[in-house]
Design a protein that fits this description.
With 469 residues, this protein is an alpha/beta fold. It contains 15 helices and 15 strands. Helix 3 packs antiparallel against helix 15, helix 4 runs antiparallel to helix 13 and helix 7 packs parallel to helix 10.
Length: 469
């Protein structure tokens, strides 16, 4: 009996949480199904070569390569074409808001089971107002467990429409490298202390947090500091104080080499918490308050119950002070011992079992047109309200730009898109980040699929992409 195909779609979130969870589920599915990950996140470039899972990158609407309405149709058509090519039975979506194109794909193919992997700990953002309509379009809703769920008082916490699983994590004790092997894999000195820093860079407040955190490491004898991204701002200026031995190292999945680290400083995102703490890494959490994820609630829980230290994300001095506590061996030992009490993170397997079970359900479904049209109308209304709310800010910005004009950069090169089925990480990263439109194909795609994808691209981009083939 052939294995069923299951498509795992993710949004382009603030961090890697959506993609990490999808990867954990895909790895659990491999023995019994053919998982395919599709994502708008650039991090998908790491997955094919390192995890051996077929993937497709889909340019998100934030690339501005087409109008919002065209993008919704483009996403729907891409998913439907992939379902037809692979005979997929189930489509799951891990993200805060299921895009209209995701739901439209399910409505256009009622035999396709649609599952929403909906993380908890939401802040009270406007997205909560259409939770009911979105839920009605789903065949199942799964909530990945969160160790801090006791501190979840957000809009999803009281809903009874989901199946709650254990936490999901790419960290597995049985698969993780030993301390020595992990350090060798990262090119680190085997005997000196090592701290991992994962705070990100970008806006000025995020940059200031990075600098404050790094200052807290000054004075730690023989320390090696590992970052996954160079600590520089958009102008190339260093965010790191003098006196630190800093190395930028990338390894995917990072969960495999976590035993290399004596401590960590990290944002309080879902995958950071559920990888570092099960690996018993003494950690300071510095929350990122953007997006829907209530990182502060998660950080407070970790701190209140002694599993990690929480720095006040709004107080740079407190970030430096709290990070400095990691230099105390007794503090690190206490956190390490406490983390051993955490429950197992088997949610990836539990979600895989749910998706696998859905592939065997052959019940005939109907398109949920009434609910679908109500949801689309509400989505348009929400966009309109956001537009009105932002008009004043936009006018201020226009006046500013009139006084201080800047050179407008072209979003995408006006030429036919590049089609390719690359699985090599560096090549895929380059194609994804390029200004040229990139149409990614799963490996082993048929000629019919390639032709269909060209038709979809032509409809989305217009005459500019017409080719001679």
């Amino acid at each position: 009996m052939s294995k069923p195909t299951i498509i795992l779609a993710t949004s382009n979130g603030v961090g890697m949480g959506h993609l990490a969870r999808a990867s954990a589920v895909a790895l659990a599915l491999k023995p019994v199904a053919n998982p395919i990950i599709v994502s708008m996140a650039g991090g998908i470039a790491e997955i094919p070569s390192f995890l051996g899972i077929r993937c497709e990158y889909i340019p998100g609407r934030d690339r501005l390569w087409m109008s919002r309405e065209k993008w919704d149709t483009y996403l729907r058509d891409r998913l439907l074409a992939l379902v037809e090519e692979t005979d997929a039975k189930v489509l799951s979506f891990d993200g805060v808001v299921p895009y209209p194109g995701i739901i439209a794909a399910r409505n256009a193919n009622p035999q396709l089971k649609l599952v929403w992997v909906r993380r908890g700990l939401w802040q009270k953002k406007p997205q909560r107002f259409i939770l009911g309509l979105q839920a009605k379009m789903m065949d199942a809703i799964v909530e990945p467990g969160d160790i801090a769920r006791a501190y979840d008082f957000g809009p999803t916490s009281k809903r009874k429409d989901c199946v709650l699983t254990s936490p999901v994590s790419l960290f597995r004790k049985e698969d993780a490298f030993s301390r020595e092997d992990a350090r060798k894999a990262l090119g680190l000195d085997l005997n000196r202390p090592v701290v991992l820093v994962q705070l990100g860079t970008g806006d000025s407040d995020v940059n200031h947090k990075m600098t404050a955190a790094l200052e807290g490491l000054l004075g730690w004898k023989d320390l090696q500091v590992i970052l996954t991204k160079a600590p520089i701002d958009k102008d190339g200026n260093s965010l790191a104080p003098e006196g630190l031995d800093i190395k930028v190292a990338r390894y995917f999945p990072l969960a495999k080499v976590l035993h290399a680290f004596d401590a960590a400083i990290c944002a309080t995102g879902y995958n950071g918490v559920h990888e570092l703490l099960p690996a018993q890494i003494p950690t300071v959490f510095v929350s990122n308050i953007r997006g829907t994820d209530d990182q502060e609630a998660r950080a407070r829980w970790c701190n209140d119950f002694g599993f990690a230290l929480r720095a006040n994300e709004a107080d740079l001095a407190d970030i430096t002070k709290t990070v400095r506590e990691l230099q105390d061996q007794e503090v690190r030992s206490r956190l390490k011992v406490k983390c051993a009490e955490l429950p197992e993170t088997n949610g990836g397997q539990e979600i895989a079992d749910i998706l696998q079970a859905l592939t065997t359900q052959n019940t005939s479904e109907k398109a949920k047109n009434i609910v679908f049209y109500r949801l689309i109308a509400q989505d348009h209304l929400n966009r309109g309200l956001r537009h009105v709310a932002n008009m004043g800010l936009r006018r201020v910005a226009l006046v500013y730009r009139f006084i201080n004009p800047h050179t407008v950069e072209q979003v995408a090169k006006q030429e036919p898109p590049v089609f390719g089925d690359s699985t090599e990480s560096r090549e895929l990263q380059k194609l994804i980040k390029s200004g040229t439109r990139f149409e990614h194909l799963i490996t082993g795609a048929s000629d019919e699929y390639r032709k269909k994808r060209e038709e979809i691209a032509y409809a989305a981009y217009g005459d500019i992409v017409k080719t001679d083939n």
